[in-house]
From TrEMBL:
The gene is yvcK. SUPFAM superfamilies: CofD-like (SSF142338). The keyword Transferase does not apply. This is Putative gluconeogenesis factor. It is found in: Cytoplasm. It comes from Saccharopolyspora taberi. Signal peptide: none annotated.
Length: 326
């Protein structure tokens, strides 16, 4: 797909983890100019260990985005990046790509330069950027953790928020500087959002991968003011923990609560995951968006999007079409 001046469509996808991988896998079927803007608040697993031990950006979500955009001719390097060590030693649980990125960060110091080098190694024609060049801390307000179901408790850490048995009401981000300062956006990520033709939010862990981008002031402002078309891709199923029991329209309500000024052009959802389409359409209309219901789930992998189907639906959304039934 090309823009009116015959250049490739400039697409920016914001998120983290498997949800961002799904979006990137679809976008690379549409255009060669894809920029991933990735969350950097992970404090669990291999990423959390490297972050705590070395004081570096958590590399896991960045690694996944690189692998999703890697060229087919670099499949081996992509597989190596995703390979995770087994056993019980010091390397157990670490992904090779996490260690490579950590080494590059220690040698080069500049996360943007590190990711640009990794893109060349993996044949990525687009770009992978962190939403901030400093690791961030997350905290969330959660209800349902005490005998009083309305009592609000604050929990800290991305993993804690993502896995809470309570119901998340709101999340916040802070810089890792000991002073709980406001997070600072990566300038290149802000520029990419401003210069994009289309910007995508979701799918993914709603409170810990999607909403965080709206909690970084410069990115928030860029998402509100960009002239790009803004597309929200909803999850196929609620995520145990942070969005358990959420309806599709509740995801949009939470989005609006965290960014009241944000307007959206299209909301894309799988038709089989929306029990009350009229309610979703009403919530989308409140954001200024058209709703596109389609079949985008991978039949063989429950809870995951099919890249080919998602790519076709994204093209339909960019053409301002509504429900597609295949």
């Amino acid at each position: 797909m090309s823009t009116e001046d015959d250049g490739p469509l400039r697409a920016v996808a914001l998120g983290g983890g498997h949800g961002l991988q799904a979006t990137l896998s679809a976008l690379r079927r549409i255009t060669t100019d894809v920029t991933a803007v990735v969350t950097v608040a992970d404090d669990g697993g291999s990423s959390g260990r490297l972050r705590r031990e070395l004081g570096l950006l958590p590399p896991g979500d960045l690694r996944k985005a690189l692998a999703a955009l890697s060229d087919d001719g670099c499949r081996l390097w992509s597989e190596v990046f995703e390979h995770r060590f087994g056993g019980n030693g010091a390397l157990a649980g670490h992904a090779v790509g996490n260690l490579v990125l950590a080494g590059l960060l220690e040698v080069l110091g500049d996360p943007v330069a590190v990711l640009d080098h990794a893109c060349r190694l993996l044949g990525v024609r687009g770009r992978v950027l962190p939403m901030s060049t400093m690791p961030l801390d997350m905290e969330g307000d959660v209800v349902g953790l005490d005998e009083d179901p309305t009592a609000v408790r604050t929990i800290r850490g991305q993993v804690a928020v993502a896995s809470t048995p309570g119901r998340v009401k709101q999340v916040r981000l802070y810089s890792t500087n000991g002073r709980r300062g406001a997070p600072t956006a990566c300038p290149e990520a802000v520029r990419a959002v401003h210069e994009a033709d289309v910007v995508l939010l979701g799918p993914g862990s709603w409170f810990t991968s999607v909403l965080p981008h709206l909690l970084v002031p410069e990115l928030h402002e860029a998402l509100v003011t960009t002239s790009a078309r803004r597309v929200v891709v909803l999850n196929l199923v609620p995520q145990p923990g942070e969005t358990a029991g959420f309806s599709p329209e509740q995801h949009l309500d939470v989005l609006s609560q965290h960014a009241p000024e944000l307007r959206v052009d299209s909301v894309l959802a799988d038709v089989d995951s929306v029990p009350t389409p009229d309610r979703l359409r009403a919530a989308a209309t409140a954001l200024g968006a058209r709703t596109l219901l389609d079949r985008v789930a991978a039949p063989a992998t429950p809870g995951r999007h099919d890249p080919e189907a998602l790519a076709a639906s994204l093209e339909a959304a960019l053409e301002r079409r509504t429900d597609r039934w295949r």
